[in-house]
Amino acid sequence: MLADKCKYGKCTHTKEPGCAVLEAVKDGLIPERRLENYHKLKREIEYNLSKHEARFRNKRSNFWKNVGKQAKLIKKSRGEH
């Protein structure tokens, strides 16, 4: 795989010197369109993950908010303040 031949382990294949993928595009070994599709898919994955994480944070926040409300109701019903 070309990405394994990159100089850096976390190469983004955008502008890093020593990127084997960029060299392959430059040399015509792989079409530039293929690299563009890779970057597009990567952006879509990052976007979907961020949406999922935000949804999870909201659910967790709402859960603890409800726990706090229930605790207050229990204390109130027992006559505690």
| Strand element count | 0
| Alpha-carbon Rg, integer | 25 Å
N→C terminal distance: 65 Å
Return the average pLDDT rounded to an integer.
89
SS summary, helix count: 2
Which bin fits the share of residues in helices? 55-70%
- Uncertain segments are none
Oligomer: single chain
Query: Hey, roughly how much beta strand do the residues contain?
Result: under 5%
Q: Could you give the order of the helices and strands?
A: HH
What's the overall geometry?
A: rod-shaped
Structural domains: how many: 2
Structural class category = mainly alpha
Task: Briefly characterize the structure.
With 81 residues, the chain is mainly alpha-helical. It contains two helices and no strands. 4% of the residues are buried.
Blueprint of the fold:
Layout: H1 20-26, H2 32-78
Characterization of the model:
This protein has 81 residues and is mainly alpha-helical. It folds into 2 domains: 1-30, Orthogonal Bundle (Ribonucleotide Reductase Protein R1, domain 1), CATH 1.10.40.50; 32-72. The protein has helices at residues 20-26, 32-78. It starts with 19 loop residues before the first helix and ends with a helix.
